[in-house]
Amino acid sequence: MCPQYNSAANIESVNSPSISFKFRTLEDVQIISEQVSNLCPHPSQAILGIIEMMLNAVEHGNLGIEYFEKTKLMFENNWHKEIEKRLKMPQNLDKFATISLDKTKTQTIITIKDQGNGFDWKNYLDISPERMADPNGKGIAISRMSFNEIKYNDCGNEVVCFIG
After folding, report:
1. Domain 7-163: what homologous superfamily?
2. Is-contact 29 55, C-beta < 8 A?
3. Given 3-state DSSP classes, what are the helix, strand and coil percentages for the chain, each rounded to the nearest 5?
């Protein structure tokens, strides 16, 4: 298990109670991302980043879909079916991810954590020319436009996104 990113060491004290949700399905991502983005200073700017990070937690983190596997599934138009299939597998029935939102005087902090083994997130911070034609692999780079800063824990199963 990977150590948790210690966001408390990098932010001033939280001045409002944290709100958090558990999620595991694509429908959960849709509903919860809208609720969380509406608590952000600019909801229409935050929503895309929140959706991308939550989807990553479900598909890559908890369900273990690898990059090239997703590329193939997307080209074959089988991505959604594969997600639904894996959600029903015995080893995934109890897996969930969490999203929490905290506010300080100057920032909104969104933390997303999954129960996966993590990944090498450093390779996905920018859109690579090698992946440009692929239908996937750009979500983290796109998410960076929604947030002032993102920080991953070392193994990549937790991301903290800062707005403000």
Report:
1. Histidine kinase-like ATPase, C-terminal domain (3.30.565.10)
2. yes
3. 40, 15, 40
Band of pLDDT at residue 19, cut at 50, 70 and 90? very high
Length of the chain: 164
**Could you give the percent of the chain with pLDDT greater than 90?**
85
Task: Answer yes or no: are the C-beta atoms of 113 and 98 closer than 8 Å.
Answer: yes
Q: Half-sphere exposure of 20 toward its Cβ, with a 13 Å CA cutoff?
A: 11
- Contact between 113 and 157 under an 8 Å Cβ cutoff? The reply is yes
Write out pLDDT tens, residues 35-66. 999 999 999 999 999 999 999 999 999 999 99
The residue extents of the domains of the chain are 7-163
For the stretch 109-152, pLDDT in tens is 999 999 999 999 998 999 989 999 999 999 999 999 999 999 99
State the Cα–Cα distance between residues 101 and 162, nearest whole angstrom.
10
